Amino acid sequence: MVVKRYQRPEMAYIWSEQNKYQAWLEVEIAVDRAWSKLGKIPASDLQKIEQNATFQVADILAMEEITKHDVVAFTRTISKSLGPEKKWIHFGVTSTDVVDTANGYLLKQANGLLQQDLKQLLAVVAQKAKQYKTTVMMGRTHGVHAEPTTFGLVLASWYSELKRDLERFDHAANGVQAGKISGAVGTFANVPPAVEAMVCAELGIHPQEISTQVLPRDLHAEYIMTLALIAASLERFALEIRHLQRTEVREVEEHFAQGQKGSSAMPHKRNPIGSENITGLARVMKGYVLPALEDIELWHERDISHSSVERIILPDATELLDYMLHRFTKILEDLTVFEDKMAEDLNVTHGLIYSQRVMLKLIDAGLSREEAYDLVQPKTAKVWAEQVDFRALLEDDERITRYLSVSDLDDAFDYHWHLKHLDEIFERVGLQ
């Protein structure tokens, strides 16, 4: 189960024993209200149930020690707070009618927080992307300097991914915000569909169009997979920060608070601990996917092999992601960006990052691609080996200056060429 270190109180309360049993009670009372509307339960009995039905968590847990069944322990504890009207508690329904419907209700509460978290992070990423839209930096592939980009474009890619995450989340969240009040094997034999419809409407969730004794678990598998995908997005973003904070790069740095310590042994250390924390927790989140997938295959109309799994992964996954989203939002809000260092690092490879522009200009001047490539590549090898200036080598070779003038090389070595479509890209992403 999630340790308190990775819990926020708002989400932890949703999955507390108190709130869980309160959700069960709200389902039970909603069922009785529906029965009363259908003329089955007298209004006077319903009023007594609404006014007097209560519980203490400790009493339920003590009763479960005897019954070895949590829902029976719950209903018997509730019944102790009532008079003869207690006969209507759990009338016509089965345990999973209550538990699955209550879980849909609890997930709706959790999803409200997660949706807020996602939107808050999305807003921060959007603001930062606009702020650093033209902040030129080194684009890297395979960890190696490639061609110029901007930090704003890096953040714009995060923004686009988070939009997809939010779209996936809304779909998957809606799937698990479902209830079923259809009885022992889902036939509505002892409780009519009208009861299910009224209960779900009262709780603000939707009736599943068909269920067995349980809601179909592909819904929950999709949900957990979606949370894991969001965690994977955060891990991708955090990995970029971790690389850019390396000493030999140091283009960004997580905020280092006054009094903060980076190492017990080395006073100088400033480590990207927040981003590393995100990376580690994402690994845990991904681990929930396999058991969620395996929960889909239940025997016939139900078994409880999924129950123990979901008691762990539903609270844990939502609590962890809530924590991760909040922590990464704070990391990004306070991130230190060394814009001068980003610009300086464009020159680390002595101009090699403009090799493609030189090659393309040679092609434009009349050489074949193969000829241009084979003319430029030996120069790049010499730069790598001897750490000399790439442009100087080009200017000293008559085979190249025959085709390219000084102004051609000036243009080829101008990073602004790589930024000319910034506005168009930002518009496509929705960051006008």
UniProtKB/TrEMBL annotation:
It comes from Bombilactobacillus folatiphilus. Keywords: Lyase, Purine biosynthesis. Pathway: Purine metabolism; AMP biosynthesis via de novo pathway; AMP from IMP: step 2/2; Purine metabolism; IMP biosynthesis via de novo pathway; 5-amino-1-(5-phospho-D-ribosyl)imidazole-4-carboxamide from 5-amino-1-(5-phospho-D-ribosyl)imidazole-4-carboxylate: step 2/2. Belongs to the lyase 1 family. Adenylosuccinate lyase subfamily. This is Adenylosuccinate lyase. PROSITE patterns: FUMARATE_LYASES. Pfam families: ADSL_C, Lyase_1. NCBIfam families: purB. Residues 350-430 form the Adenylosuccinate lyase C-terminal domain. Gene3D superfamilies: Fumarase/aspartase (C-terminal domain), Fumarase/aspartase (Central domain), Fumarase/aspartase (N-terminal domain). InterPro entries: AdenyloSucc_lyase_C, Fumarase/histidase_N, Fumarate_lyase_CS, Fumarate_lyase_fam, Fumarate_lyase_N, L-Aspartase-like, Pur_lyase. Its EC number is 4.3.2.2. It is an enzyme of class 4 (lyase). GO terms for molecular function: lyase activity. It catalyses: N(6)-(1,2-dicarboxyethyl)-AMP = fumarate + AMP; (2S)-2-[5-amino-1-(5-phospho-beta-D-ribosyl)imidazole-4-carboxamido]succinate = 5-amino-1-(5-phospho-beta-D-ribosyl)imidazole-4-carboxamide + fumarate.
